Amino acid sequence: MNRFLSLAHRFRLVAFVVLLAGPGVTQVRVACLGDSITQGALLNDLEHDAYPVQLGWRLGAGYRVQNFGVGGRTLLRGADLPYMDSSAWKKLLEWQPDLVVVILGSNDTCEGKRGNWAHQTELEVDAQALIEGLRGVNPKVRVLLCSPPPMLVAAAGLSSERKQDLTQRGGRLGRIAQALMSVAGQHASARFVDLSRVLKLQQVVDGVHPNPFGAEAIANRIAEVILMPEAQPLDLLEALGARGIEPTTTRYHGFLRFDFKLAEDGPACTLVQPHRASRGRPWLWRLRFFGHQPALELELLERGFHLAYVDLAQLFGSPRALARMEALHGLLLELGFSSRPVLLGMSRGGLPLLAWGNAHPAETAALVGDNLVCDLRTWPGGQGGKRSDGDWQRVLAEYKWTEAEAAARGDFLLGGVEAPAKAGVPLLLVQGLADQVVPPLANGLRLAKLWRAAGGSVTLWPKAGQDHHPHGLHPPSPLTREIHFACGLGRNPATWAVPSAEYRGHPAGWGGETWWRQLERLRNLGREQPQAEIVFLGDSLTQGLTGAVDRIARVDGSRPIDRILGQTKALSLGLSGDRTEHLLFRIKQGALAACDPKVIVLQIGVNNINTAGHTGREVAEGIRAVVDLLAQEEPQAHVLLCGPFPVGIQPTDPRRVALEEVHASIADLGDRSGVTYFDLRPLFLDEQGKATNAMRQDGIHLSGKGEEVWLGALHPLIESLIGG
Question: Which one, of 574, 435, 407, 576, lies nearest residue 503 by Cα?
Fold first, then answer.
C-alpha cells in the first residue's frame, strides 16, 4: 500500500511520506533534507518521481521516508536562503527522524545577486551546526552528508550563459564535498556520500536538476548506502603503527591513502580506506598500474571496499611476486580484512592474478581480468601479439628460462586454473575483442574456455572492435555488482520490486501519459475483463502486439494478435521500458487481482540487458522471481515463459553474451509443473545468427511479421491449454 501526504510551504516545499508498512509496524524515519533537487523541481509528477519517493520504494516496509526539500535553500547560514531558517527545518525537527539524508550545496555556489559563495569559509561550521541541530532532537540520529550532484555543462539545450554559470559554479562543488567529508569524519553517526558521479547527461533537465531517471539514480545510490551493512570502525594508522609500520598518509580521490613498505627494504604497498567499511572488510587487490582507469575501484571504495596494492613490477607472476602478495595478505588478515580478496589484473597484471588464484583458491573471492596476459609467449614474447624485447629478457631472467624453455612453458599459469575454477571462484572478464597487443584467443578467451571446462563460473563483457586500450568497463556498475555478489554482499536490482521511472509517454506509445497512469489503466482493464483467459505480461514487445489504446485481441481486428488470437480476447498488459523489477512491482500491486487467466504469456528481460546493463545472472534471477511470484499469486494459470528475444542485428553484438547466460539459466524453469519454456530466438535469426526481417532495424523490437511468428509458435499450445 502506498499513500502520499503533501504539505505546501513557501518556495514550493512538498513533503511526501511513503508509507509501506501496516499499522503497528515500527519504521525507521528517514528525512530527505535539501534544496530543489530533493524537492523534485522540474519534475511533472512529484508524487511518484521525486527521489525521496523512489527511495521509499527501495527501502521497503521497514522505512518511512518524507521529503523536506525546499527550492533555493542553502547549507550556509550566511547565505540568502539558509535551510535552517526555513519552516521545513522546523517541521523536520518536530518529526524527529532517525536518519537524515542531506543534499545541499548547489545554491551555495552562487555569486552575483545571491552572493552566497562569499561565505564558503563557513561551510564546515555550518555543516557541524546542522548535525548538532539534528542531534538536539534525536541524539542517536544518523546523518548522510551528500555532496551535491554534478553540474553537467554538456547537457542538451543549455544556453551559453547557462553553460558559463554552471562551469563557474561546478568548479566549487569539490570544496563543498571536502567540507562535508571533513565534518562527517568527525562523527561516528555521520557518513559522507559522494554523489559527484551519480548522474549522466541524459538524466538531467537543465544541467543540474534530475529528470525521473536521475532521481532514480540518486535514490538507488542512497538506498545502497542506507542498506549497506557496516563493519566496526578501524583506525588504520594506529593499527599499522602497532605493527611497526609508519605509513605516509595522503588522499586518493578523496579517500584516505596509506603508503608504506612491508619491511625496511621490502616492496612498496598502498592501502586506501573507504569512508565506511562494509561488513567483513572486503577489499579489491589492484595488481599493477595503480590508479589507471580507476572507475571500478572508486565505485567499490564508495561502497565500503578497501583498495590494496603491492609493487610487483617486472616479476611477471613469478614465485617472488607470489611471496610479496602472501606477505601483504598476511598483514591485512592481522588487521581484520577479509581473507578472500577480489583481485583485479589489467594486462600483465593477469600474471600475478593467475599465480595467486592457482595457489590460493580458498583465499580468493573473485578474479577480475581486463585484457589480461595469460601466456607470456604472446606478450612480451610477441607470438601472435606485440613483442617487447626488454620485457621478454626480464621474463627469461626472472624465471631463469632459456628461449626453448620459455617457448615450452610460457603458458604454464593456464595449466593451474582448474583449481580455482573447481573451488567456485568466479572469473569476471572485460575483453577487447580486437586486442592487437595481447591476443584474446590465446589469453582472456582461452582462460574463459578453460575455466568453463573445469565447471567454473565466467562472466564476460566483450568489447567488440576494441584494442588493448582503453581498459575498463564503462560504466563499471555491472562489474561492481558481480563483485559484491562474489563477496556475499550483493543485492540484485533485477529482483528488487520497484516502479518504473519511465516518463516519456510519447516514445513509449502512451501519448502524454506516464507509466503510473498506464499502470492504473491496466488495472482497470483487468477489472473490466475479469473473464480473460489469456494475459500477456511483458515490456514493449508485448505492448506492441496491441498498442496502448486497445489492448484486447478482437475477432474482427487486423493486427496479428487479432487474426491469430481474436477468438480468445487475449489481453496485452505489456508496458514499454519495463524490466523484471518493474513487472514484479506491478504483480505485487495487483496487476492481475481482478482476473484469473488460464494462460499467462511472459516475455521480459530485454530491457534489463539493453538499458540497465544487468548481467545474465541478474536477469535470470529476475525472471525466476517473476515466475515464482506468478505461481504464488496466480496458481491457476499456466505460464508460457518466452525467454528474451535476440538483441542486436549482428551475432557479434556483445549483449548476446548476457542473453545466452539468461537462457541457459532459466531453461530448467520449464521442468516445473504449470510452466512451459520457449527459446524462440531461432525463429528470428538466420543461419549466421543475424536478425531476419522478423525484427525491426533497431535489433530489439519485432516487425509485424515477427509478431505473427511469435504468436503462431504459441497458438497450438494456447489452444490446448484453454480447450479451444
Answer: 576
Residue 65 domain-assigned? yes
Question: Which residue is it, cell 511513503?
Answer: 18
**Residues 539, 482 share a domain:** no
Residue 1 in any domain: the answer is no
Distance CA 647, CA 681 (A): 10
- Domain extent for 615: 496-722
* DSSP bridge pairs for 269: 260, 310
Number of structural domains (the chain) is: 3
563 and 481 part of one domain: no
Cell of 424: 567456485
**477 and 343 in one domain?**
yes
Instruction: Report helix, strand or coil for 55.
Output: helix
Q: Please indicate, yes or no, whether residues 468 and 593 belong to a single structural domain of this protein.
A: no
The model's pTM is 0.93
Residue 440 is given by DSSP the state G
User: Quick one: 486 and 513 in the same domain?
Assistant: no
Buried-exposed string 179-217: b where 16+ CB fall within 10 A, e elsewhere: bbbebbeeeeebbbbbbbebbeeebbbbbbbbbbbbbbb
Residue keyed to cell 535539501: 34
Beta strands at 248-252 and 255-261: parallel, antiparallel or unpaired = antiparallel
Q: Name the nearest CA neighbour of 547 among 574, 525, 582, 529.
A: 574
3-state helix, strand, coil in the chain (%, to 5): 40, 15, 40
Same domain? 124 vs 261 = no
Q: What's the CA gap between 431 and 312, in Å, rounded?
A: 23
Cα dist from 547 to 512, 603, 698, whole Å: 14, 16, 18
The SS3 of residue 557 is: coil
As beta bridge partners, residue 28 has 63
Asked if 658 and 616 count as a contact pair (C-beta separation under 8 A), the reply is yes
Cis peptide before 380 (omega within 30 of 0): yes
DSSP 460-492: EEEETT--S-S-S-SS-HHHHHHHHHHTT----
Q: 3 in a domain, yes or no?
A: no
- Divide the 724 residues of the chain into consecutive groups of 10 and give the mean pLDDT of each group: 30 42 78 99 95 98 98 98 98 99 98 96 99 98 98 96 97 98 96 97 97 98 97 95 96 97 91 97 97 97 98 98 98 98 98 99 99 98 96 98 97 98 98 97 98 98 96 96 96 97 95 95 95 97 97 96 95 98 98 95 97 96 99 97 95 92 97 97 96 95 96 96 80
With cell 555488482, the residue in question is: 481
Q: Is the bond preceding residue 294 a cis peptide, omega within 30 degrees? A: no
605 CB neighbour count, 10 Å cutoff: 33
